[in-house]
Specification:
It is built from 10 helices and 14 strands. It has a 6-stranded mixed β-sheet with strand order 3-2-1-4-7-6, sandwiched between helices. It is globular, with a radius of gyration of 21 Å. It has 2 domains: about 5-120, Nucleotidyltransferase, domain 5; about 165-280, 2-keto-3-deoxy-galactonokinase, C-terminal domain (Nucleotidyltransferase, domain 5). It starts with 6 loop residues before the first strand and ends with a helix. It is of the alpha/beta class.
Length: about 300
């Protein structure tokens, strides 16, 4: 089927590249993805990777708006961080990528930085902007679970502060590359074990190291199943994150932006602390954020 988009939205992460052919009124006409993320490409490999993915959409030379690691120092073209407090996206800060294909015009959104405590984000700022478009007038806290989870305080349309936790990466390393991996083979999930891990970590976060090794010991001598071990590990790590992030969520309006399964786990953990979090799709927020930067939005002003 022929696709003639008004513009193209691109989310380019470390591991994956995703693109959407967009109509002038914000509808998705087609989508495509590849595993050619930033981590697999040299600087001169970005343009060919993008053309391989969206080549069939380029007949009309639609502009491309991209976010994510494509704008990092190791990406296609560095888009310097903007300092908080600030609005999550600024059209004036877009950086144009150098291209040789005459059909391409690629604008890259910069990430955000925080000086003290030092922190950075790339890609999440676009999801934050999208969430604010989907929830007009929103004041409160956004949590973006993932490899590196973000807790973000937003007020009056601006990112006020944020904090990053390496929870997802720690789960992957511990479950796949540490001694704990021997007791976590296979799939499955145990919600009671997850709840126990969250509760344990929230009440005694300083004992995380000891609780982690207990997973190994219980697997050896007490019959802890792999699914219970994986779920409790997740609960311990998310619970420890919640303990540290309490100033963000305690008594606040909280919205989760992320993949359905992971957001559900965070929502369950927060519910145990009497926090009922709203959930938004990461893809919906990304597209809403990129749409705010699209030429169609600018033309409508």
């Amino acid at each position: 089927m022929s696709v003639d988009p008004a513009w193209i939205a691109v989310d380019w992460g470390t591991s994956n590249l995703r693109a959407w052919a967009m109509s002038g009124d914000g509808r998705v006409l087609a989508e495509a993805s590849s595993d050619e993320g930033m981590g697999k490409l040299s600087r001169d490999g970005f343009e060919p990777a993008l053309v391989r993915l969206i080549g069939p959409w380029l007949a009309g030379r639609p502009p491309v708006v991209a976010c994510g690691m494509v704008g990092s120092r190791q990406g296609w073209c560095e888009a310097p961080y903007r300092a908080v407090p600030c609005v999550p996206l600024d059209r004036a800060a877009l950086v144009m990528a150098p291209v040789s294909d005459v059909r391409l015009k690629v604008a890259i959104a910069p990430g955000l930085k925080q000086t003290s405590p030092a922190d950075v984000m790339r890609g999440e700022e676009t999801q934050i902007a999208g969430a604010l478009r989907l929830l007009p007038g929103y004041d409160g806290v956004l949590c973006l679970p993932g490899t590196h989870s973000k807790w973000v305080h937003v007020s009056a349309g601006e990112v006020v502060s944020f904090q990053t936790f390496m929870t997802g990466e720690m789960f992957a390393l511990l479950s796949e590359a540490s001694v704990l991996r021997h007791g976590m083979q296979g799939g499955g999930w145990d919600e009671a074990a997850f709840d126990a891990g969250v509760s344990d970590a929230l009440s005694k976060p300083e004992k995380l190291g000891a609780r982690l090794f207990s997973l190994r010991a219980e697997g050896l001598i007490a019959g802890l199943t792999p699914q219970a071990a994986r779920a409790r590990l997740s609960g311990l790590l998310i619970g420890t994150e919640l303990a540290a992030a309490k100033p963000y969520w305690l008594g606040q309006r909280v919205t989760l932006i992320g993949a359905e399964t992971l957001s559900a786990a965070y929502a369950r953990a927060l519910a145990s602390q009497c926090v009922e979090a709203l959930r938004l799709s990461a893809t919906d927020c990304t597209l809403a954020g990129l749409s705010a930067l699209s030429p169609m939005t600018e033309a409508a002003r």
